[in-house]
Amino acid sequence: MTATTVATRTERMHRLVGEIREVVGRGLPPDLTAYLVAERLAPHLGAPDLLTPEQCEGDPDCYRLHLLHGEEDGSFSVAALVWLPGQRTSIHDHLSWGATGVHLGEECERRYRLISDGRAARLIATADVVSHQGEVCGFAPPGDIHRVVNSGTGTTISLHVYGADVSRLGTSIRRTYRLPAEED
C-alpha cells in the first residue's frame, strides 16, 4: 500500500466528517458505531464533489491510501483507497471498528474465520462479498479477518472510516495472517 496525506478537503467531505464526528461522539459500542457511521457514509458515495481529482489517483504498484481526515482526539480517521485492477490487500484484521463504502467501481472481499485446535491454526473462508458503488458495511473486531481485491477491469475507489487515528498509527491493520487458508 502507498499512503498519501491530503490536506485539501471538499465541502462535502467536510460535512461527512461532521456527521461521523456526531456519531462517534455518542460513545456507543463499536459494532453499533460502525453501523451508524456506514449509514452516514452511504449518501455521499458516488457524489462527484466528494473527492478531489488528486484523491482519486492510484499507484501502478499497489493500492493507494489517501488519508483525508484524522480526528484531533484520535477517535477516527477517514481515508480513500484507490485500487487499480488486480490490486489487493493481504489477509488481515483491524485495530478498531470500521465502516467502508464503495465510491466508484466494485470491491471483492473474502472473509475468514480463524480456527485453532490447540496445536495449529488455520483460516477458513466463510464468505465472498462483492460491493458495488453506494454499498456500505460496518465491522468491529474480533472476527473481522478479510482480504479485499479489485477483480474488475477499472479503477475502484472505496471510503474507509476507522475508529483509530491512522495518521498517527500508520495503518488500521492489527495483524496480517500468513496461516494456511482453506478456500471454499
TrEMBL record:
Q: Which UniProt keywords apply?
A: Dioxygenase, Iron, Metal-binding, Oxidoreductase
Give the record's family classification: Belongs to the cysteine dioxygenase family.
Which Gene3D superfamilies does this one have? Jelly Rolls (2.60.120.10)
Transferase as a keyword? no
Its recorded name reads Cysteine dioxygenase family protein
Gene Ontology MF terms in the entry: dioxygenase activity
Q: Which SUPFAM superfamilies match?
A: RmlC-like cupins
